[in-house]
Amino acid sequence: MDEHRLFIGGRWVSGGSLSEVRNKYTGEAIGALPIATRADVEEAVTAAERAAPAVAGLPAHRRAEILAKTAALIRDRREEFARTIAAEAGKALKYARIEVDRGITTFTIAAEEARRLHGETIPLDAVPAGEGYFGFWVRRPVGVVAAITPFNFPLNLVAHKVAPALAAGNTVVVKPANTTPLTAVKLCQALEEAGLPAGAINLVNGQGGTVGEWLVTDPRVAKVSFTGSPPVGERILSIAGIKKVTLELGNTSPVIIAPDADLDHVAKRCAVGAYYNSGQVCISVQRIYCERAAYEPFVERFVRASEEMVVGDPLDERVDVGPMIDVREAERIESWVQEALAGGARALTGAKREGAVYRPTVLTEVRPEMKAVAQEAFAPVACVIACDDFDEALRQADATEYGLQAAVFTRDLDRVFRAISRLNFGGIIVNDTPAFRADHMPYGGTRRSGLGREGVRFAMEEMTHIQMVAIRLAP
Questions:
Q1: Would you tell me which of 48, 252, 425, 433 could form a disulfide with 406, CB atoms 3.0–4.6 Å apart?
Q2: For the chain, what is the total number of helices (H) and then of strands (E)?
Q3: Are residues 117 and 176 located together in one domain of the fold?
C-alpha cells in the first residue's frame, strides 16, 4: 500500500490522520492519503491566491504548452491511470481506459482553447450616448477555483474542472472524492511534471461536510465547481456567499423508443448506458418509455442484452460491470428494488446483490412514485414502461424534477423535433442513450440537475468574468 501526500503550494505535504483507499471489489487497501486539516485547507487556498497573479500572467501559448504536456504525460501512463481507476472506483478496466482517453482529450482541448480565449469589440455608437467612444470587452480569470469532484469519474471529472480553470488563467484547489483520491494524486504529479507553477494546482482530501465546506465558505475562493448530489448542491448555494457557482447534479435519465427504431441496436446501447460503471453515472439510462408496438420486442432484447453483461472483478479484461462504490450503496438500491417489487413491479432479470456488487436489473410494471423511477437510482437498474403513444412517452419522460439529458430513438424527424420542443433537459440525444457525452460540448442541466455548463470552452466562460473597456476618443 502506497502512502501519498497532499499537494499544497508546489510541495507534497503530510496532513492529518491517514485515510485508506480500498480496492472496491476485493476490499484490499491499495493506498492512503492524509485527511486535510482546517490549516491545510487554508494553506492551500493561500497558496492558490498567491500564485493567481503569476498564473493569470502566463501567456496563452505557455498555458497551452503545459496543458498539452499534461495530456502527453497521461497518455504515456495510460495503463497506470486506468488500473488505478478500476481499483479505486470499481470501474471495469475497459471503461477505465476509455475514461483515461477522455481525460487526455479534455486536456488537449483545454490546450487549444487556452489559445482562443478572447473578447469582442462593442459598437458603442449604436446608441447616442456612445458616440465618440470605442468599446471592447475581454475575459479575465476569476482567481481561485475550488473544484469538488465525485467518485464515479476520478480522472475525467477532475479534468473537466482543472483543465479549463488553468486554461483560463486561474489557480485551483481540488478536493476529489475521499473514496477515489489516488487518480487525482497522479494527475497532480503529471501537472507538476508538465511545468505548472507552484500553487497553481493544490490537492486536499477529506469529507465534503468538513474539507468541502471549508473551501466553499472561504471568501478568497472566487468560484466553486461541484459535481454531486442535489442536496449537497443546495447546501453549497446556501453557504457559498457571493461567488460564482457551477453545479452538476443528478438525473433520472429517460429514453423514449418509437416503433420505427432499430430495437436490436437500441437494446444493446441501453444495456451499456444503464450498466457501465454499475450505473453510477449522472446520465445513466434509468427510465425507458416504449410505445406499445415496440414494448414487448424491446423488453425481450433488452433483458437478453442485460444478461449478457459480464459481472465481476473490474480488473478482469472480460468484465463489463464491477462493484458499486461501497456496500451501503448496493444495500440502498437493493432496498429500492425490493420496495418496487412489493408495490407490484416485476424484475425480469437481476435484483440480486453480492456484497458491493449489484447485478444488472430490469424492472417492469413500475409506478411513477416508486423510488426506482422518481429518484436518481445511480445503480445498475433500468425501468421499462409501456406508453400508448409517442406524446404520452414525452409527457412521462418530462415528468421529473431533474433535467440533465434525455434520449430519443426514432427515424422520424417529426418525432425528433417534438421531443426537442417538449423535453426540458440540458441535452437531447437522438438515436443514442442519454449517457452520450463529448468532452467539448456544453454539458449541464435544468431544474434540480444543476446550474451552469461544463465542456471546456463553456467551463472557461463560467470561470472568467467580462471586463468592459470604453475609450473616449479625442475630439
A1: 425
A2: 15, 23
A3: yes
Q: How far, in Å, CA of 32 to CA of 19, rounded?
A: 5
Instruction: Quote the pLDDT of residue 15.
Output: 76
CB 6 within 8 A of CB 15: yes
Tell me if 75 is assigned to some domain. Answer: yes
Give the residue carrying C-alpha cell 415528468.
Answer: 399
Please tell me whether residues 245 and 258 are part of one structural domain: no
Domain that holds residue 241: 2-249+448-470
Domain shared by 183 and 287, yes or no? no
Looking at residue 299, which CATH number applies to its domain? 3.40.309.10
383 is catalytic: no
Q: Are residues 238 and 267 in the same domain?
A: no
- Which class for 260: exposed (0-12), middle (13-18), buried (19 or more C-beta within 10 A)? middle
Residue 2 has pLDDT above 90, yes or no: no
108/238 same-domain check: yes
Residue 475 in any domain: the answer is: no
Which helix (H) or strand (E) segment holds residue 362: the answer is strand 361-364
On whether the pTM is more than 0.90, the answer is yes
Task: Write phi, then psi, for 30 (nearest 5 degrees).
Answer: -115, -5
Same domain flag for 268 and 227 = no
| Options 88, 99, 113, 282, the catalytic residue | 282
When pLDDT is cut at 50, 70 and 90, the band that residue 280 belongs to is very high
* Catalytic member of 49, 248, 329, 462: 248
Give the containing element (helix H, strand E) for 12: strand 11-13
What is the pLDDT averaged over residues 297-320? 97
Q: Please indicate, yes or no, whether residues 405 and 431 belong to a single structural domain of this protein.
A: yes
- At 322-353, the pLDDT tens digits run 999 999 999 999 999 999 999 999 999 999 99
Backbone angles phi, psi at 368, to 5 degrees: -60, -30
Average predicted confidence (pLDDT) for the chain: 97
- Give Cα 149 distance to the centre of its chain: 8
Sheet strand arrangement including 120-122: 120-122, 133-141, 464-472
Q: Note every long-range contact of 468-474, with CB atoms under 8 Å and residues 24 or more positions apart, other chains counting.
A: 468/122, 468/135, 468/136, 468/137, 469/135, 469/136, 469/137, 469/138, 470/124, 470/130, 470/133, 470/134, 470/135, 471/133, 471/134, 471/135, 472/132, 472/133, 473/132, 473/133, 473/134
**Residues 124-177: tens digit of each pLDDT:** 999 999 999 999 999 999 999 999 999 999 999 999 999 999 999 999 999 999
Are residues 201 and 171 located together in one domain of the fold?
yes
Q: Which residues of 47-73 are buried (b: 16+ CB within 10 A; e: fewer)?
A: bbbebbeebbebebeebbbbbbbbbbb
- Residue 145, CA atoms < 13 Å, CB-side half-sphere: 34
Q: What is the pLDDT of residue 143?
A: 98
282 in active site: yes
**In this structure, what CATH number is given to the domain that contains residue 33?**
3.40.605.10
